[in-house]
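Lecture 7 notes: from sequence to structure.
We start with the chain below.
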Amino acid sequence: MISDSIGPSVLFRPKENQMSAQAKGYRIVVGTDGSRASNAAVCWAAHDAALRHLPLTVVHVVNPVATTWSHGPLPDEVAMWQENEGRRILADAVKLARDTANAKDHPPIPIESELVFSTTAPTLVDLSKEAELMVVGTYGRGRLSRGLLGSVSSTLVRHGHCPVAVIPVYN
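Predicted structure tokens for the same chain:
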């Protein structure tokens, strides 16, 4: 368990045989979906990147929409809306990351963003191959289910190729 001024987090490290020398991308990657939990993860990742003088990549994954009817593709407006919404989520997260990273007396760090159209968990696992650290948010649970993580964070912890920080937000 790690604790800092932003809040507690849990850091998972993969087994040594799961990490290769090429897995080190010397950047921190944070997943965002615009939720309160992912905003906490963005702040934590930006703070950590600034402390460690590492570049930060903010990633939003747009899951493909499956149609409920088999007679044709979705209207182009749906894909356009998903892309616009994804870009808005990324812009908000990058602003939050810049504000957090520059809040202290740290030199500015490079912050990039990526919008990916794919399924979330496998995409983040793949991105972990080129990261020093992956960061995702999760909502804190009640006493009975406190040990459970969301499906994305759980998959990333189990299959990630680098350490994973899961940043909880408690209700």
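Points to note: The chain has four helices and seven strands. The helical segments are 36-52, 76-101, 120-127, 151-159.
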